[in-house]
């Protein structure tokens, strides 16, 4: 006789779960015919003779996948009998997620405030030095010198595809900007030509 409470849970794992495992078709899955078929389709170094890696994976993964149904059933077996408990668990879970989200927001804001409050004297002391180094070629800058320099711009420029996705400019404005740039180049060329003519005179 199975009593209420923990005995029902023990009954699920001691009786129902093992009975479900015994019904799994391992004999068919690990039969000689199926193993021969899987190994013959394997890949790897000399796959059919020495190392049928893919065959081993298919056999093991296929066998383990049979455990999913009984495992899920053992979890849901008692929970389905108590719909009120199931609803309360779902509500408590959602409430906990909402509470964790608020805590996450507070933590993120706290981290930003901590970074903002960590501006030391050394940071402001380095600012003039970094401004003087702005004209230094990139290949002459050491990692230590580039701590507050142009390193982040180089990282951004190293991934132009992602940058273009983030800066998806309006096509009409982009076309107008390109036309203005071409017009500016024509003006500059005309100015240089006029200057060259005036100097020859």
UniProtKB/TrEMBL annotation:
One of its GO terms (cellular component) is membrane. Residues 90-201 form the GED domain. Keywords: Motor protein. GO terms for molecular function: GTP binding; GTPase activity; microtubule binding. This is GED domain-containing protein. It comes from Vigna mungo (Black gram).
